[in-house]
Design a protein that fits this description.
Blueprint lengths: L8 H12 L4 E6 L2 E5 H11 L4 E4 L5 E8 L3 H10 L4 E6 L12 E7 L18 E6 L3 E7 L4 E7 L1 H11 L3 E5 L8 H4 L3 E5 L6 H12 L13 H16 L12 E2 L7 E2 L1 H6 L13 H5 L5 H12 L5 H16 L1 H11 L5 H10 L4 H22 L4 H9 L4 H10 L20 H28 L5 E5 L3 E7 L11 E5 L3 E5 L1 H33 L2 H27 L5 E3 L4 E6 L17 E5 L6 E5 L6 H17 L7 E5 L3 E5 L12 H13 L6 E6 L7 H17 L5 E5 L15 E11 L2 E10 L7 H7 L4 H17 L4 H14 L7 H10 L7 H14 L3
Parallel strand pairs: 1-5, 7-10, 9-12, 10-11, 13-23, 18-22, 21-25, 21-26, 23-24, 24-25
Antiparallel strand pairs: 1-2, 2-4, 3-4, 5-6, 7-8, 8-9, 14-15, 15-17, 16-17, 19-20, 19-22, 26-27
């Protein structure tokens, strides 16, 4: 930037402020513009598409410059933040008219992707979480949405915290710089991250920050007193808020623990595979997209948390289902509540604006209207003969006093900004009314002066106007300037006219401007007092917002049930799962008009039918069946009705879904490695209430490797003492033989109908195993050239003919030997001898597999 001694005063001031915020893009207010300089200007020009120029920085130095009008901040700021920029907003802290020196400036707000109140940056239907991660003895994590005041903490292993990150989707993650190596890269990949000094991540420091904010001596009241690593993370969040110039945080009234034991375990892979929040297809729809029938921003955000954290408590689930049943059956109540909810503004974010003093007059009226809606809902649901709805009604605060205060203080249609005037209603404040009378009388006097001077001079086109340069003036066209009296003082000459002032005008002007200034000050004072009074109700308003959000979700479930013919599930404490005529909630909404979804039954019982082995051709619907079983379970344990004729859900505590194929090339992991990582995670975290859905395990490697792995996994699940419920879809027909050896494995297939060379996918799950994959038929449907199809059929026929005589025999024999080489049993030598002397060439692969399992049974499994 050149020699500091040669810098202009403005650039010296800029550099001093920039030095305090080196990591932020600094928007520097100069007159009516926000300017950026140097590297900031280059970034801003690229991101915003604005012109990049250069300006002098004293002596011969030049630096890049890019700026935009200050009134366009709400247009340009979101673009910078969405591009991952931390933005420091530097404003003029004094009126340039009041000083002859350089205007005092300072950073008034530091906006980051995770710390913003700007409506143009925030999405109304989702939280904007700032997250802190601390890898201590375990992983501590904290999530704060500063725009709503929601503050959540949790503590657990890498898998659990990784799942929370995927579920709650923070927009910014902060961490200790020296601890970065201890945080798995997949946790923070593709997110905006910011490193803080290590000293910030200390338990005592975090504890002091939190207890000071909440005005407590401990954290026991929040249930987090034993979560040291989570407390460290939460403290780091509060430190970061201070660093980003956010000190008005009265709307953060509680710290809530995400209790792992209260919610279904779903790992990151499951959330992705089920497309809970995002579809993997460019134009696809997620589960959230389909089931979201909420009518308020608070409801939409809560629904996402319910989706991420389905319940394990039967009583809590039943309470939700009961309220859904009430709304579903009472159509008039449902319609009226929906109508009222549609008029509710974003109470949670309005509260945050009240707390920080960023609330506009129109937003206070929105708050009043929303509180009136709360009172109406309280009255409506309070009349229903339901203990649960009565409980909700009791939790709603009508706040007549605050509503009345806002109504009586603000004008009916106030401007967005207090500085525009006419914010406070007439009759509210005697002093304000007097100033307004002065202005009204003064403007009447101005009209009298105009009339008097018109009569006096005989100038018919005399005009009275005002500008900021010399105040009120009289304008005379040149054709009449010879009539101007001597006591008028000329102030400006135009092409076709002259402008004059008089002593009488200047006196009136002084009175009017003084009154206008006093009105502005008085209105600001009265408005600030109203905001301060509203702050006293923050906790009650937040409570109302939470109740309305819950009601909104449950009414939405009722709407969904009526619209899509969902049934109320039976939630039981046993370990079985029975779904009759189940449907996929997303796929059924995307079918062409007139086409019905083929519903299917699923029955799993750890005692009799623990594992269902599903075979069938590609594209027959195996994956859809697996997914719909998982989604029906999730919906049921959220408290929603489900897409089925009937459903009895034995409470699930862990849900694992391994479907689809993907790789992780950036970390050197092939498709098969990803598949094995995900499957290993499942097998290492089993419980007696787990629901496991596996699709095409082993297909990423050679055929016999794949069969061996798939067989071993199915066997492991069957023999595991927890007996987890499992749907196992596979194209390895050899696995059908497992039902002959393992008591709780049953074969089913997704049926097809063959007509000549055509195959019709019936998508119906029926008992028995399938022996065909119809892969060549699928290739034909995809438009594969005829030569390739014909040659494939020839090769398939030859391979099937030789299948029982060739390498499969050796592979099975090797598998047998490998299966037993580590066993420690008196019969081991005998078993090994049988394997070595076995005439493998005389057996079919299926017979060999049956012998293998017979040998295993002989050794007690």
């Amino acid at each position: 930037m050149g020699d500091k001694g040669s810098e202009t005063p403005l650039m010296r001031q800029y550099n001093q402020i920039k030095a305090k915020h080196p990591d932020a893009l600094l928007l520097f207010r100069v007159g009516d513009f926000y300017e950026t300089f140097g590297q900031d200007a280059i970034k801003a020009s690229r991101i915003l598409g604005i012109v990049l120029t250069k300006r002098s920085n004293g002596a011969a130095a030049e630096m890049e410059l890019a700026g935009f009008p200050h009134h366009s901040l709400d247009t340009y700021l979101p673009k910078l933040v969405r591009a991952g920029q931390r933005v420091a907003i530097c404003d003029q802290l004094e009126d340039p008219k009041t000083t002859k020196k350089i205007v005092k400036r300072g950073v008034t707000e530091l906006v980051t992707p995770g710390v913003t109140f700007n409506d143009q940056i925030l999405r109304s239907d989702r939280n904007n979480f700032l997250c802190a991660i601390y890898p201590g003895k375990t992983f501590g994590v904290a999530f704060l949405d500063v725009s709503t005041g929601e503050f959540l903490v949790a503590q657990g292993g890498e898998e659990y915290v990784g799942k929370l990150l995927q579920s709650l989707r923070p927009t910014e993650i902060i961490y200790a710089k020296q601890a970065l190596k201890r945080i798995p890269s997949r946790m923070i990949a593709e997110r905006y991250t910011y490193g803080l000094d290590d000293w910030v991540f200390a338990y005592d420091y975090g504890f002091d920050l939190l207890t000071h904010h909440f005005g407590t001596t401990s954290l026991k009241g929040f249930g987090v007193q034993d979560l040291e690593d989570a407390t460290v993370a939460a403290g780091a969040v509060f430190h970061y808020l201070r660093e980003t110039q956010n000190d008005k945080l009265g709307h953060i009234t509680a710290l809530s623990r995400i209790a792992e034991e209260n919610h279904i375990w779903m790992d990151q892979f499951t959330l992705r595979n089920l497309e809970i929040f995002h579809s993997n297809a460019p134009d696809g729809r997620s589960l959230f997209d389909v089931i979201d029938q909420t009518h308020s921003p608070m409801g939409a955000r809560m629904l996402q948390r319910w989706l991420a954290l389905p319940l394990k408590s039967r009583s809590a689930i039943e309470d939700r289902l009961e309220v859904v049943e009430i709304f579903r059956s009472k159509t008039n109540l449902q319609e009226k509540v929906v109508e009222i909810l549609s008029s509710v503004y974003d109470l949670e974010r309005l509260v945050s604006k009240v707390s920080t003093g960023k609330v506009h007059p129109r937003e206070l009226l929105q708050l009043k209207a929303s509180l009136e809606a709360c009172a109406q809902i309280k009255e409506r649901i309070g009349k229903v003969n339901s203990e649960l709805l009565s409980r909700y009604a009791d939790q709603i605060h009508p706040m007549e006093g605050l509503r009345k205060r806002i109504l009586e203080t603000l004008s009916d249609d106030p401007p967005a900004l207090v500085s525009k005037g006419d914010v406070i209603r007439e009759g509210v404040d005697e002093e304000l009314d007097q100033y307004r009378d002065l202005i009204r009388n003064g403007k009447t006097r101005l009209q009298e002066v105009l009339q008097k001077e018109t009569d006096r001079t005989g100038i018919p086109s005399l005009k009275l106007a005002f500008n900021n340069v010399f105040g009120y003036y009289l304008e005379v066209r040149n054709t009449h300037k010879n009539k101007v009296p001597d006591d008028w003082i000329r102030k400006q000459t135009l092409v076709n006219a002259e402008r004059y002032i008089t002593d009488e005008l200047k006196v009136l002007e002084a009175r009017i401007l003084e009154a206008e200034e006093k009105i502005m000050v008085r209105e600001q004072f009265l408005y600030d007092r109203l905001v301060e009074e509203t702050r006293e109700y923050l906790h009650q308003i937040q409570s109302n917002a939470q109740v309305l959000a819950r009601i909104d979700c449950l009414v939405g479930f009722a709407l969904l049930a009526r619209k899509n013919k969902y049934a109320r599930p039976i939630i039981s404490d046993d370990r079985g799962l029975e779904i009759k005529q189940g449907r996929h909630p997303v796929i059924e909404q995307q079918l062409p008009p007139g086409e019905a979804y083929v519903a299917n039954d699923v029955l799993l019982d750890p005692e009799t039918q623990q594992i269902i082995m599903i075979t069938g051709p590609n594209m027959s619907g195996k994956s859809a069946l697996l997914r719909q079983t998982a989604l029906i379970t999730i919906l049921a344990q959220m408290g929603s009705f489900v897409p089925a004729r009937e459903a009895k859900i034995g409470l699930v505590d862990k849900l694992f879904v391994r479907v689809g194929a993907s790789d992780n090339i950036s970390q050197g992991e092939s498709t098969f490695m990803v598949e094995m990582n995900e499957t290993a995670s499942i097998l290492n975290n089993l419980s007696d209430r787990s629901l496991i859905l596996l699709d095409e395990i082993g297909r990423g490697t050679s055929t016999y490797d794949g069969i061996s792995i798939a067989w071993a996994i199915a066997e492991y699940l069957h023999e595991h003492p927890t007996r987890p419920k499992t749907l196992f879809a596979t194209h390895y027909h050899e696995l059908n033989e497992m039902t002959h050896t393992f008591d709780r494995i049953r074969n089913f297939n997704v049926s097809v109908k063959e007509m000549d060379k055509d195959v019709i996918f019936l998508r119906k799950l029926v008992p028995g195993g399938s022996e065909h994959s119809f892969g060549i038929h699928v290739a034909r449907m995809a438009g594969m050239p005829a030569f390739v199809l014909n040659r494939a059929e020839q090769l398939l026929e030859r391979l099937e003919d030789s299948r029982d005589q060739e390498t499969s025999k050796d592979a099975l024999k090797d598998e047998m030997q490998l299966s037993f080489f580590q066993l420690d049993d008196p019969l081991l030598d005998e078993v090994r001898h049988q394997i070595q002397t076995l005439d493998i060439n005389a057996l079919t692969p299926v017979e060999a597999l049956m012998i293998l399992n017979g040998l295993k049974k002989k050794l007690g499994g």
